[in-house]
Amino acid sequence: MSKPAVVSIEMGYGHVRAARPIAQCLGEPVLHVDRPPLAGPEEAQRWERARRWYEGVSRASQVPFVGAPFRALLDGVTAIPDLYPYRDLSAPNIATRGLERMIVGGFGEGLVDWLRETKRPLVTTFYAPALIADYHGIDDVFCVVTDTDCARIWAPVEPRKSRLHYFAPSQRVMRRLHFYGVPETHVHFTGFPLPHSLLGGPQLGVLKRNLAARLGRLDPRGTFRDIYRDELAQFLGPIAVESTGQAPLLTFAVGGAGAQKDMVELFLPAMRQAIFRGRLRLALVAGVRKEVADYFHQQIERHGLSRQLGTGVTVLREDTIEAYFDSFDALLAETDVLYTKPSELTFYAALGIPIVSAWPVGHHERLNRRFLLESGAGLKQWDPRHTDEWIEEWLDDGTLASAAWSGFMRLPKTGTYRILEALGARPMTDVPEVAHALA
């Protein structure tokens, strides 16, 4: 089998974030279905219109009061039927039929022509390229699901006749695809593909080292470490004494559409004193959006924290999505708490990073939050205006340390390597470990 082509799309950050670890370990670039060599100018414009619509609705849905209709629209687009009672959910819906009509009309022909010419297997983290290739009879097509549950549009109109294979990040996705009519032999449980640079290989050496240091910062009173002393020693070895008492780093990350950036205006005033006194550090992640980074800097200046820039407060923003992912991975290596909406970053709790869930954007994110809470790896935010107080309480009583440990113990961590194994691919062994962003 030829080396697989890894294909994704910038529809938010989630699909590319999932593709990157697989591509890096294969020594391949991430190809974008809406760019050359997979799409011509006209097709690229069709994808761009879809992206602008999605990002616009996502941002509008977060506006108080006037955002209600947009939230309803987004929920309708991302709707996933109740799984219970168990029943046949294989009947195609409007979205599935609509996508097939687009494919019949020529949507994705550039991708199909390229795959036929190169004869390479396709691994994609977005449903559309997988369904396009499968409709045209392309062999060796693999689709990585990027949420803890998935809508009907991820499966073909006639799933029982399909040759498409899926890599599932959760057991619920496996059940869901089964009820959508996908043969059980075509669904493979792997877990979500996490960055090799934050794992360190199948033995998880980098992850364990980062977690050991993180637990020292998340458990300043030693409450959690006293209770689980023997288990920690068994799985992690000695907890880094030098990290105990250091100010933990809270990272607040907005999504690719820039939704929820306004939350900074709510929680930053309350966190001001904790930052000045060295009890907490804050990183604000703007991704590739200059307007979001500018807004963060305005809020930092407004609340008198400009002198803390580079020490107590940092803003992460890059010009390209590739540079952003590199910098974000480096930041996660020393992040102690990740505060974000429950997107694909839900799966990053497996790295031993407790996730505080902001308000979900779309039905699929509500199910992601449920996954976090049920695994014990995440917590729902309280009133953002008092973030400093509930974070300090969770530090004092070991709640955040417990969530970090639950994520590490309960969630699958080796999805990248299991996907490579299923593909029969040999990973590169020289993917570098990330350098700490704030070192």
CATH class of the largest domain: Alpha Beta
Q: Helix count?
A: 18
SSE run: EHEHHHHEHEEHEHHHHEHEHEHEEHEHHH
Helix vs. strand class: alpha/beta
Q: CATH superfamily of the largest domain, called what?
A: Glycogen Phosphorylase B
The major pleated sheet works out as:
6 strands, parallel
Catalogue the unreliable spans. none
Strand content: 5-15%
Number of domains: 2
Average of pLDDT = 90
Strand line-up of the largest beta sheet: 2-1-3-4-5-6
Q: Give me the CATH architecture of the largest domain, please.
A: 3-Layer(aba) Sandwich
Shape: globular
Descriptive overview:
With 439 residues, this protein is α/β, with parallel strands linked by helices. It folds into 2 domains: 5-189, no CATH class; 197-412, Rossmann fold (3-Layer(aba) Sandwich), CATH 3.40.50.2000. It is 44% helix and 11% strand. The protein has 18 helices and 12 strands. It has helices spanning 14-26, 41-60, 68-77, 94-104, 109-118, 127-135, 171-179, 196-199, 205-218, 223-227, 229-235, 263-276, 290-302, 321-332, 363-375, 387-396, 399-410, 415-423; strands at 5-8, 30-32, 122-124, 141-144, 165-168, 187-189, 249-253, 281-287, 313-317, 337-340, 355-357, 378-380. Strand 1 (5-8), helix 1 and strand 2 (30-32) form a beta-alpha-beta unit. The chain starts with a strand and ends in a 16-residue tail after the last helix. The mean pLDDT is 90.
In short:
This protein is an alpha/beta fold. It has helices spanning 14-26, 41-60, 68-77, 94-104, 109-118, 127-135, 171-179, 196-199, 205-218, 223-227, 229-235, 263-276, 290-302, 321-332, 363-375, 387-396, 399-410, 415-423; strands at 5-8, 30-32, 122-124, 141-144, 165-168, 187-189, 249-253, 281-287, 313-317, 337-340, 355-357, 378-380.
